[in-house]
Amino acid sequence: MPKSRIPLVLRAGAALLAAAALTIGGAAIAEAHVHVTPDSTAAGGYSVLTFRVPTESDTAGTVGLEVDLPTDTPFTFVAVEPIPGWKAVVTQGDLPKPVEVDGTTITKAATKVTWTAEGSTQVAPGQFQQFLLQAGPLPKEGTTVSLPAKQTYSDGKVVNWNEPTVAGQEEPESPAPTFQVTAAAAGDDDAAAPAATATPAATDSADSSDSTARWLGAGGLVVGVIGLLLAAVAWRRLAVLSKAPAAGVSPKNSDSSSNTSQGSAV
Predict the structure, then answer these.
(1) Which neighbouring-strand residues pair with 161?
(2) Model confidence over 41-50: pLDDT tens digits?
(3) Does domain 40-203 have CATH number 3.60.20.40?
(4) Does residue 5 sit in helix, strand or coil?
(5) How much of the chain, in percent, has pLDDT values that exceed 90?
(6) From 234's CA, which of 58, 103, 226, 249 has a CA 20 to 30 Å away?
């Protein structure tokens, strides 16, 4: 392999490694957001909403989560799943204006759910916790349900996850957890009836942002491995070429051996 091509291979490997670093970095940032994952998004139905809350701080743990519920399309039913070491409170309040839900006009509804760590409980750095609640009925198809959240750390720091995400634009730094309501399933007679108990969502479930981030992270790792392999091959070839004798030059030992043989023949 000509020496002139070796730097090109090395530059290509470096570029692949840089791309992998950027991809993995972006995926890590996306995973650090507070997300909500509904187990159902059918209009008129009831859904278990799973809030995945990672601790971003390196020095403090998460000790509180507060989620604001919609007041323009309020839920008439809200229930929380108990979590050992955490106290959950559903706050009822007056709505800004009367709202009709399933033919009934309501003026009060659940407006907030708060989880507070008890004792020494906390979500330590490098960990995450899932907080579940069941709510419904969901509003009409096409509605974006926004659930702004407030995350409290053990050092007193509060992070607000309340920025709206606009279609076609970059995701904001602290986006509010949201999901889109879809059409009601045809012939689903149980769509409007809440379950007897809140069933935990699957631990490995995630919203579209989570799935995208994981695929990007996996792709970044693959690209990084390819870059490392290319760089290793290039360095190996460089070492081989540096040790090989120049073309057209005979080894000294061969010359010496030839002269000795000629002297012996005389």
Answers:
(1) 149
(2) 999 999 999 9
(3) no
(4) helix
(5) 53
(6) 249
pLDDT digits (tens, 9 = 90+) for 232-265: 655 666 555 566 555 454 544 444 444 444 444 4
- Do residues 51 and 69 lie in contact, with contact meaning Cβ atoms separated by under 8 Å? no
174-190 pLDDT tens trace: 999 999 999 997 765 54
Helices (H) and strands (E) in the chain, counts: 3, 11
Domain boundaries, the chain: 1-33+205-245, 40-203
Q: Which helix H or strand E contains 90, and what residues bound it?
A: strand 86-101
Tokens of 199: 């069933």
DSSP 129-175: EEEEEEEE---STT-EEE--EEEEETTS-EEEE-BPPPTTSPPPSSB
Confidence at residue 212, expressed as pLDDT on a 0 to 100 scale: 45
Could you tell me which of 18, 77, 28 has the C-alpha nearest to residue 209? 28
Distance of CA 202 to the CA centre of its chain: 16
Supply 10's token pair. Answer: 């090395």
DSSP 76: S
Do 93 and 78 meet the contact criterion of CB atoms below 8 Å apart?
Answer: no
51 burial type by CB count under 10 A (0-12 exposed, 13-18 middle, 19+ buried): buried
Helix (H, G, I), strand (E, B) or coil at 196: coil
**Residue positions counted in the chain:** 266
208-243 helix and 6-31 helix, angle to the nearest 10 degrees: 160
CA distances from 187 to 30, 39, 46, 151, 183 (A): 37, 19, 15, 40, 12
Structure token pair of residue 153 = 């750390």
- Cβ neighbors of 29 (< 8 A, separation 6 or more) are none
